[in-house]
Design goal:
single chain; 217 residues; mainly alpha; Serine Threonine Protein Phosphatase 5, Tetratricopeptide repeat; 3 domains; elongated
């Protein structure tokens, strides 16, 4: 087993000091290989040392500006720092460099959502949902973006698709309840709010909505 594989195993076992030692050795062995810096950056993110992680990702990019995983790591650091515009740029560069995976499109979309530009985020979240067809959370956030952008019918379809993937998804039921209220279907809304609370008894939004519907009825 090579040093990188061993270090990744140490990371998975939360043995960060041992992982750091091996990642450092791989950098010393190949100082011009950007992947060593990417791996060390990922380790530092696991250790919640985002400032130093950012330096390692930037070093990897300086060595090779086509290193997609370095841009992705940098995007994740910037997202954690709530620098959403900078994170958006990094995720876009990740895609441009060839890493076109669901998680990248999802994080790009979420970066745009966090800049209050939900409509602009929809194509990225839709692409993420296409690439990860079995991921209920990605699909849910796609539906949420549609709802927030007032594409209500489209959002309703997506939330039902979420329930096909994960029957006990409390937030999907809650949002379907809100949509039912939008269509003036309080009885249908009540069913969804009750289901949300059955799944997650401390769902405050569903509890409040359920009480309001019951009072109205």
């Amino acid at each position: 087993m090579d040093k990188t594989s061993q270090a990744i195993q140490y990371m998975q076992k939360q043995k960060f000091e041992e992982a750091a030692k091996l990642f450092n050795e791989t950098i010393e062995d190949n100082p011009k290989d950007p992947i060593g810096y990417v791996n060390f950056g990922n380790l530092l993110m696991h250790m919640e040392d985002n400032d130093h992680a950012q330096q390692f990702f930037e070093k990897a990019i300086a060595l090779d500006s086509t290193t997609a995983t370095a841009y992705y790591g940098l995007g994740n650091v910037l997202y954690e720092k709530e620098q959403f515009n900078e994170a958006q740029i990094a995720y876009q560069k990740t895609i441009d460099a060839g890493l076109q995976e669901a998680d990248v499109y999802f994080m790009l979309g979420q970066s745009v959502v966090n800049q209050n530009q939900t409509k602009l985020a929809i194509p990225y979240l839709m692409r993420a949902a296409e690439l990860a067809a079995d991921d209920a959370e990605i699909r849910f956030h796609y539906g949420l973006a549609l709802a927030q952008a007032e594409y209500i019918k489209e959002a309703e379809v997506v939330f039902h698709a979420v329930l096909q993937l994960e029957e006990k998804h409390a937030d999907a039921h809650y949002n379907l309840g809100v949509i039912a209220m939008f269509y003036d279907k309080p009885e249908e809304a009540l069913v969804h709010f009750k289901q949300a609370l059955e799944i997650q008894p401390n769902h405050v939004l569903a509890a409040n909505a359920k009480n309001k519907v019951e009072e109205a009825l």
